[in-house]
């Protein structure tokens, strides 16, 4: 059973520590909002009642 899920919404190439040809994250933009298809699927999954959400502060 999964007890927690953590998603890091990051534009890795914009961060200086992840820049460079040999750095894996230099080519990865992990933000959901930059891909409309993925964004829609994420929102659908999060609304289906499977997950309990922590309150937003």
Describe the structure using short key phrases.
57 residues, mainly alpha, elongated
What does this 3D model show about the protein?
With 57 residues, the chain is mainly alpha-helical. The protein has one helix and no strands. The protein has one helix spanning 36-47. The longest helix has 12 residues, at 36-47. It is elongated and about 40 Å long. The protein starts with 35 loop residues before the first helix and ends in a 10-residue tail after the last helix. The model has no long low-confidence stretch (mean pLDDT 83).
Short description:
The chain has 57 residues and is mainly alpha-helical. 21% of the residues lie in helices and 0% in strands.
Blueprint (SSEs and pairs):
Layout: H1 36-47
Termini, distance in Å?
A: 27 Å
Q: What form results from the Cα inertia axes?
A: elongated
- Largest beta sheet, briefly? none
Helix content: 10-25%
Rg measurement, Å: 15 Å
Q: Mean pLDDT across all residues, rounded?
A: 83
User: What is the N-to-C succession of helices and strands?
Assistant: H
Number of beta strands: 0
Query: Which strand-content bin applies to the residues?
Result: under 5%
Task: Please identify the structural class as seen in this structure.
Answer: mainly alpha
Count of helical regions: 1
Low-confidence stretches: none
